[in-house]
Structure formats: structure tokens, C-alpha cells
Amino acid sequence: MTRRAWSFALLGAASLLTFVFGLTVGTADVGLAALADLVAGRETLSEAERLILLESRLPRVLGAWITGAGLSIVGVAMQALVRNPLAEPYILGISGGASAGASLFYMGLLPSLFLGALSVSIAAFLGALATILLVYAVARTRDGLSVTRLLLAGVALASLTGALSSFVSFASPDANRLRAVLFWLLGSFSGLTLSDLPIATVASVLGLGILMVFSRSLDALLLGEEPAATLGIPVERMKHVLIVLAALVTGTLVAISGAIGFVGLIVPHVVRGFTGVSHRYVVPAAFLGGGLFLVAADTLARSVLPGQEIPVGIVSSMAGVPFFLVLLRRQSWRFKNLS
Amino acid sequence: MSLRSDHIVPLLPSHPAGAWLCALLLGAAIWTGCGSGQKTDRAPRADSTRAERAPQSDSTWAASARDTTLTDALGREVTLRVPVLGLAPLAPSVTETIALVAGTKALVGVTDADTWPPAIAHLPTYQVLPVDFEQIALLRPDLVLASTQVNAPRDARAFEALGIPVIYLAGANLEDVLGSVRLVGELTGRTGRARTVTDSLQARLRALTDKTRVLESQPNAVFLISTGTPWSFGPESYMHEVMSWAGLASITRSFPNEAPVLTDEFLIERAPEVIVGPFDSDVDARAEILAAHPLWRTVPAVHNGRVISVPADLVLRPGPRMIEGAWVMARGAHPQLFEQQP
Fold it and tell me: What is the CA radius of gyration of chain B?
């Protein structure tokens, strides 16, 4: 087996283990034995145990997996689009727009779009969409889409929407809503149900398929726009595809989980260390790696302190950064050199 | 100020040159008055408003005024001329304490979060999170009273720079609240009234705990800040004490940190029999909880409908009214104990 094949085998095994880890660890004492009973169909499980396994942990594990996977492949796409290793899914201001949309909704400054808990997700999605449209409008030039303008407008809009969220939160007279917004801004899978997942799953899997189809174009984009065009890649069309993909996938994921940072930045770099920089391998590896990373982070977020959970974004940064730094030091890290 | 005006104003009509001179002098006098106002006005004054606030007659008050050095809840030493008359509270719990001990006439203004007692409605308001120093300085308080539970310690330095003394009151538990009542009594020269307040608060508490003591065991309960995100209170909070008075055993008392966000799993596993919170009284709190947390349907408190709403002002302010909050909680949780009540 080649090194790459080993890497994929390892990622597959680790994904399975993380899935079991996520299902058997939590603040309640419901572990492997209960999972085994459930899988075997034994009737020894109490109603509370069944509820915890099937309705609390399972949607969270699936939701975290699909979110981590989706954000990671969008991170790969953004890094190729702007040819910058610092790029991540939120570079175009999407998470800031989603947060601002959610904040405005929580504070009652947006009309109730639909009844129920879906409203805040729709507000977040609309916020993300409005931001990306504005960034796109600024970055459009006569000669095509300017990547530099795209980046600068994205950073500026992220700052503006961040300020808007902060102001709305600060000016709110209702402390309870303020807390809800804060928790949402930091990201959380709390209260996720299976019915929240289909749209996010379709978006992430669709993103995976599209990026796999365009993997050679992504490789060429890393060389620069002119060399890519020389190789016959329709660069402008590619840029538009990547932006629409990023907006749809990130907007959908942020709407169910809040703004979970960091996963879309580091996972692509980590998997490049194992698979090389060819997008044919980076994209599926990032999909698997992102999923297992966020499931592990969410499991820690809801079990590290007894009886309570902390925002998953805090755990993903605290646990992920040291690991990432060690990898950067130890490996012959590459971003552009195709191998 | 009035003395200065009496001397200057009669000169004005007599001669144009004199009028100009007087205008200049008046301007200078106003300028001097304004310039020094921040300092001279800090000392207790014998104007009519202050006299009205004073516990005794004006002359008695002036004679009884003395410099006293106090150590506040932050360990700061503050020297004041007591009794102090114009107070500016920085937290609703402090306002309520002052109102009970010295009446609302002792206040120069209240915070924008204050709602009680109703007599504060006519008083000027100011923001405290963050503190609107300018607005408070304009009200010229003789003393600012802050709470360690609400206000940042660094605010003290800003008030000191403005020449306004500030004292921090503790409010972590009942002992602190009673201590704050006594301290406000000493500061305002109303020690007798403060004693009456502490005695009546303790009697009211005894009356409640005498009722809840007959319970064979205290049911497990959890206090939630809202029906949405399940924020609760950590180990250092006064809330566990309040719940205990009401005959409830708080399940977050032994948590390792303050302000925990509880997980669904914890609630399902610990299965509290009662949920208490500052939920709106005009909404169905149980239905809201179920909508936000469908998995809690098996939690006994939700399943059996023992979700109790307590007015936020009574339980979220660590002040003298928290004993009333415990009464409301107890009536909701153990209605059988109150059936004999007329």
C-alpha cells in the first residue's frame, strides 16, 4: 500500500472511532455498553438512555461530522481560489454576515420569517447571502473577478458585520437574548435534531462532488490565473463556481451550527501533509478529516466540564492549534508544489 | 451662590459702566463657581434639598456630621463625612437597599435598570453598564454606592478622579445583603431603621423556613435563566441558598464554574422535579421549554408541569427582596404548605 492509501485507511478508521467516541461520551453515564445494547436491539435500555443516544448524541455527531466536512472542503476551495494558505471558509465575510443576520433576528429587528426555530437559520443564511453578494459586487471588474478585491472586501465586510453583531448585542436590553446570541456566535450543535440535517448534508455532499469534478482545475488555479488559463482552464467560470459553492455550503452550515472557526483553515493543511497537494486527494481527505475533527471537538465540548457544555469553537481552537503547530514544525509542509 | 447674587445684582441698573463691571464680575463669579464646583460641592451642603433628605433637622445634622473611615467590600479605605445625603446607586439591588433604609429622598438618581420602589419613577436615570460618569457627575452625588456583583472595580478609580467617593457593597449571600443594609444605615445616619429592616427580613425568612422545614426531603430543582439557552448558576451563587429557603435542592450547587450552560444529557440524567426561572408570567414557560428542548419531555419537572416562574427582579438581584423571591418560589413548588394561609 502506498503512503496515500495508508493515509486514507487511517482517516477512515479514525472517522469510525470518532463516531463511536461521539456516541458513547457525554455528561451522562451512557457509554459503550448502552450503545452495544442499542445496536443489538436489546430491551435493557432505559427511555432516558435511548433518548440520549438516539435523539441527543446521534444528531450532534452527524451534524458535527457534516459541518466539519463541509467547512474543510470549502477551506480547500478558498485556499485554491485566492492562492493563499491563510484563506478559510469565512474569508469572504460569510460567517460575519450569518452572525449579523442571526443577531438582528434575535433582537427582533428582522420580521419573523417563518414560525419556529427555523427562522434564525433562515435569517443567518440571508445574512450570509447578502454579504457574499456585496463582496462579489465590489470584486467584479471589467476584466473579470479580482481576487485581491474579493479578499479585501471580504475582510472589510467581516469587520463591518462583526461590528453590527456586537452593537446589536451590546444595545440589547434583554440579557437572555444577548446570551443566546453570544452562544450562537461562538458556534454550537446543542439542540440539533435529525430534521435539521438533510439540507446541510446535501450541501456538503454536493460541494464534495463538485470539487472532485473540478479537482484538476483547482490544481491549475494554484499555479496562478495565467498559467491556469494557458492550460485551458476556464478561470473566470471556475472562480464563480467556487464562490457560489462557498456561499451555499458555508451559509447552510453556519445556519445550523453558528460560526465555528478554525476547522476550515487547519484541516486542509493537515491533510496536505499526508496526501500531497493534489486536489484529487486533498478534497476527500479534508472531507473525512474535517468531519472527524469537529466530532471530536464537539464531544469534548459537551463532556469536558460536568453537566455543561462550552462552545465548540473554543475547544476546536484550544485542541487544534497546538496540534497544527506541531505538524507545521515536523512535516515538510507544502501548499503549492504539486507532487 | 445666593449670597453672591444678592451683592451683585442690585448694582446692575444704577450706572452703565457699573453694569458692565457687574456683568464682568458676575461672569467671573459664575466661572469661579463652576470651576470650583466639582470640589466645593462634594462636601455635604446645607441647601434645602439636602436638609429635606437629612435624618434630623439641618442644624442637628451639621453638628452630628463627622469624618469616618470605612473599608468597603473591595477592601478599599474610604474617608467620608457621615451622614451622607445624596446617594447615587450603581445597581438595582443597591437602590432597593437605600430605599428601604433611607427612603428615595436619599437618592440623587437611579440606574436605567431600576424598577423598584415605584417612588423612584420621578428620579433622573443613568446608564451603569458601562457607567455614564458624566451623567452621574452632573447629578452631584455626595457618594456613589456600587455592588461587587455588578460593577467593575476599576470604575472606582474613575469616580475618585472626578472627586466623587465610592463605596462597594457586597452581595454574594444573605449575610452580605444584611451587612449592606447596616452599612447604608451607618452612612445615612439611619442605624435604627437599618436594624428594623434587618430584623424584619430575618423574621420573614424564618417564617418561610419554618414552613419548608416540614418537608421530608427537598425535591431536586434547577434554576434556568431562560427557557432558551439553559444557563444556570454555579457554586458561588446566592441562588442555591434562595432555593434552599424555598425547600428546593439545587442540582447545580456543586458545579465547578459559574454560569454553566447545561447539557440536555445532564438534565435528562439528573431529572429535576422542579424547574424555576425568571420566565415571563404571561407565557406558558413549560411550552416554551418543550419547544426549545424537545428532549426534556422526559424530565419530571417538564413532564409533570412543575415549571415555576418567579419575577426576575426578585431573584436576579442579590438584594433585600430575594427573600420575597424565595416565598414566590416556595408557593409555586409546594402549594400544599400554604393552603392554610388566609
Answer: 25
Full-model pTM: 0.76
ipTM of the complex: 0.75
**Number of domains observed in the structure of chain B:** 3
- End-to-end C-alpha distance for chain B, whole angstroms: 58
Whether B220 and B287 map to the same domain: the answer is yes
Single out the residue in B198, B233, B250 at which a domain terminates.
Answer: B198
Residue of A205, A313, A302 whose CA lies nearest to A259: A313
Structural domain boundaries, residue B60: 48-198
Cβ-based contacts of A47 with chain B (< 8 Å): 298
Average pLDDT over residues A81-95: 85
Residue B312 touches chain A, beta carbons under 8 Å? no
Query: Where does a domain end: B140, B167, B198?
Result: B198
Main-chain dihedrals φ then ψ at residue B217, nearest 5 degrees: -150, 150
**Are B63 and B163 in a shared domain?**
yes
Shared domain check, B221 and B307: yes
Residue A42 zone, left/alpha/beta (φ > 0; ψ -120 to 50; rest): beta
Which of 230-289 (B) contact A at CB < 8 A? 231, 252, 255-257, 260-266, 268-271
Q: Give yes or no: residues B30 and B163 share one domain.
A: no
CATH number at residue B175: 3.40.50.1980
B206 within some domain: no
Domains of chain A: 56-292+312-330 (1.10.3470.10)
Q: What string of DSSP letters covers A108-140?
A: T-S---SSSTHHHHHHHHHHHHHHHHHHHHHHE
Chain position carrying cell 462634594: B42
Q: Which of A52, A176, A300 to mutate to test the interface with B (most CBs of B within 10 A)?
A: A176
Q: What is the pLDDT of residues B119-162, one digit of tens each?
A: 999 999 999 988 999 999 999 999 999 999 889 999 999 999 99
Q: Is the N-terminal amide bond of B124 cis, ω within 30° of 0?
A: no
Identify which of A48, A175, A308 has the shortest CB distance to residue B263: A308
Contacts of residue B257 in chain A, CB cutoff 8 Å? 305, 308
Question: Does the pLDDT of residue A50 top 80, yes or no?
Answer: yes
Residues in chain A: 339
Q: Considering only CA atoms, which of B58, B64, B42 is closest in space to residue B144?
A: B42
Contact list in B for residue A298 (CB cut-off 8 A) is none
